[in-house]
Write a structure and sequence with these properties.
The complex is a heterodimer of chains A (86) and B (448). Chain A contains 4 helices and no strands. With 86 residues, chain A is mostly helical. Chain A has one domain (3-83): Orthogonal Bundle (Non-ribosomal Peptide Synthetase Peptidyl Carrier Protein, Chain A). The two termini of chain A are 23 Å apart. Chain B has 11 helices and 27 strands. Chain B has helices at 32-45, 59-71, 84-93, 156-170, 187-200, 212-222, 232-240, 260-270, 356-364, 398-406, 434-447, and strands at residues 9-11, 23-24, 29-30, 51-54, 75-78, 97-101, 112-114, 130-132, 136-143, 149-155, 177-180, 203-205, 226-230, 250-253, 274-280, 284-290, 297-299, 303-308, 311-316, 323-324, 327-333, 336-342, 346-349, 352-355, 371-375, 388-392, 418-420. The chains are: A mainly alpha (86), B alpha/beta (448). At the A-B interface, helix 2 of A face helix 6 and helix 7 of B.
């Protein structure tokens, strides 16, 4: 896990209050939603708020990229790195 | 004469006008004539079956599939959720069915019509199809208390009438620009974001915006007279996003009780009144209020309430049958009521009565509580049943919450236990099913 993936994993755990989950429990390439970490659409909404507060940009789904962005910790981290404000 | 059985035909859609932009996305603006062109092309290629299970997520795809099925005299089936199990159950009950889908894979063995790439460039069609008023246009399924899907049959005449009554209340017209965050398969979503546009000509945003930024862009895209059709969950996200919102005309919320504090915040952020709709799948939307201003709900024109023993019954000419309300209401007069709680939610603990809905509102109003619900455990013995509660409140301790709550409630209603959880197991429309709540409680008990 890269340092940035680790940071994003911490944000996921913190913003969704996944108290029983440790950073190392989240595999970078495993699914976050559904069968993976078991997150749902309300979690996605919650995560989008955390991301906008921490990284200063808004998540969008209109371009139907949403599924790819949220598919794993790795893709979410890549999306954040590509879009975060400086 | 009952409208429901009317043999009269009613237009599928309001006639097209020159230069109109009706079905709108960020990339494309279709007139009703262009939409009808697509509908006509798709209708010709639909399978020759009686029932179309419409699972399309994109609102444009859903609308084309819905309209094309009606043109072919088919009935559109709308499951209460998109799980494979639910869809398989419905497909088994309606063997002459197929699936309309724009991505989701249906259960194996069920015929599927792909709506991913619809022929958007089809020639304009100006001839408006007429649909028989007594044609069963849709069957909307609700998740019954027993876990089995319950069918609610809707004729075309009753759907059209429902949209007209909503129009009377909210004044929708061809300038109105509807942006909805709710799925079109839900009765509230179907009525407000599909039928109202078809019947009244109100403009509609073709996508299903989900994140606050999607919603902001969609509203900006609709321009003046835009109207946000949403739920308390999305309103909360919009309010906390810190975004600057375009000027909009109105906000409508439904599917769950809207907390007054949240309604106030939303009115401040959107600078416009927030209207709350009360409805049920059986009758569609039927009453509204401005949450920050009115304690009393006002029925739409055409609906009236009457009492039968302890039960309040809703009646309207366009409904096939009268509908007993599943909520406890205090009748103010035939056209106004106060909502006290759900019937099955009326509690009696140690001789004291309370409504679960009211308890939930109080629990959710505790400072720091983001989401919360009371759960009535299965009572195994005839002793005093204690309520359990599941609470999302990361900044508060369980003791603090109980302490605050004890200021609001009779001690018999204080939850024991109160579990802090990371999120409530809400489904797509924000509803909480008893099964999901009980599972979560059992998991929590296992940890304790």
């Amino acid at each position: 896990m890269t340092p940035m993936e680790c940071e994003v994993a911490e944000m996921i755990i913190e913003s969704l209050n996944l108290e029983d989950t440790q950073v190392e429990d989240i595999e970078p390439e495993a699914a976050l939603f559904g069968e993976g970490l078991g997150l749902d659409s309300i979690d996605a909404l919650e995560l989008s708020l955390a991301i906008s507060q921490r990284y200063g940009f808004q998540i969008k789904s209109d371009d139907s990229e949403n599924q790819r962005i949220f598919s794993s910790l790795k893709t979410l981290t890549q999306h954040i790195e590509a879009n975060r404000g400086n | 004469m009952s409208l429901n059985n009317s043999p009269l035909s009613l237009p599928l859609i309001l006639e097209s006008e020159p230069d109109e932009q009706w079905l709108i996305t960020r990339f494309e603006r279709l007139s009703r004539g262009q939409f009808l062109g697509v509908v006509s092309a798709v209708a010709q290629s639909l399978p020759d079956r009686q029932f179309a299970i419409n699972l399309c997520e994109d609102r444009r795809n859903f609308m084309v599939g819905f309209a094309a099925a009606l043109v072919r005299h088919q009935t559109v089936l709308m499951p209460s959720n998109r799980s494979v199990g639910t869809i398989a159950e419905i497909a088994a009950q309606y063997p002459d069915s197929y699936i309309l889908s724009d991505g989701l894979e249906g259960p194996e063995g069920v015929m599927q019509f792909d709506c991913t790439h619809l022929p958007w460039g089809s020639p304009v069609e100006t001839q408006v199809p007429m649909i028989a008023g007594d044609h069963v246009a849709a069957i909307v399924f609700t998740s019954g208390s027993t876990g089995r899907a319950v069918p609610n049959t809707k004729t075309w005449a009753s759907l059209v009438r429902g949209a007209e009554l909503a129009q009377q209340r909210f004044g929708f017209n061809q300038r109105t620009g509807i942006v909805a965050t709710v799925p079109p398969q839900h009765m509230y979503g179907l009525e407000t974001s599909v039928l109202v546009p078809l019947v009244t000509g109100a403009r509609v945003y073709g996508g299903r915006p989900f994140f606050p930024e999607d919603i902001r862009q969609a509203l900006a895209c609709m321009g003046q007279h835009s109207l946000l059709v949403t739920t308390p969950i999305h309103l909360r996200a919009c309010v906390t996003s810190g975004l600057v919102w375009p000027d909009i005309e109105s906000v409508i919320s439904a599917t769950a009780a809207l907390d007054e504090a949240l309604a106030q915040q939303a009115e401040a952020v959107f600078k416009t009144p927030v209207q709350e709709i009360y409805g049920c799948t059986e009758a569609g939307s039927l009453a509204s209020r401005q949450t920050t201003r009115d304690a009393i709900w006002k029925l739409y024109e055409g609906f009236r309430l009457y009492w039968q023993k302890e039960q309040v019954i809703l009646s309207a000419e366009h409904l096939a049958a009268d509908v007993p309300l599943s909520d406890v209401v205090d009748e103010v007069d035939q056209h106004h009521f106060r909502l006290l709680g759900r019937h099955q939610d009326m509690l009696n603990i140690a001789g004291k009565r309370a409504s679960l809905m009211d308890l939930n509102l109080k629990l959710n109003a505790v400072p720091g509580v983001e989401d919360a619900v009371f759960v009535v455990p299965d009572s195994k013995e005839r002793v005093v049943t204690r309520l359990a509660a599941l609470v999302v409140a990361p900044s508060r301790s369980e003791k603090q919450i109980i302490r605050d709550l004890s200021r609001q409630l009779d001690p018999v209603f204080l939850p024991r236990p109160l579990y802090q959880v990371e999120a409530l197991p809400r489904n797509e429309t924000g509803k909480l099913t008893r099964d999901a709540l009980m599972q979560l409680i059992e998991r929590k008990e296992g940890c304790a």
